[in-house]
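Exam revision sheet. Question 4 asks you to relate a sequence to its structure. Input first:
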Amino acid sequence: LGARALGPGARAYAMYAEAGLSPREPAIIVGGDVTAAALAQILRAKSAAVVVVASAGSAAERAALAAGLVVVLADVDTAAADLPALAARVAAAAAGGDQGYRPVRLFETSTDPGWRRLALALAGPRTTLVMRTSRAEHELVVPAAALAAELRLVAVREAHPDLAHEVLALVARGELDLA
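Answer key, structure tokens:
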């Protein structure tokens, strides 16, 4: 069974692997798709402090709530004027009261431009932003402000076949539901 057959779970695991996330390190997932749902479960299994930014009723929201994770509701069409307030809500949720400021890992799981814009708006100084890219994307547009903030960008297109066994192990332990 290859990584491609495992679909969103394998892609989510590839994003996790590329991020270099430590246990209990704050992580933010932006997106409402099934890749975000799988990533929420994987990060929970790896003991990360996770906040999921997703639309109401999405697969990611349902998976995050089932895993006992913090969810901040947003919409892919969030207006630019509303982004600062949303960023403040997400930062407060990620801080968790006693963690204080630390650079975070931010995951953007959708190739939708709205979620990408939202993820870039949430990225703080020295944030690692792990983005899902598509085969159709030939160039990546990143605002100058994001680059000035010393943002580290990691692009993940597909899962690596060597990671399939890790995904299957999570499924076998009941920590990842691919249904």
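Marking note for examiners. Helices lie at 8-19, 34-45, 59-66, 83-95, 113-122, 144-148, 164-172.
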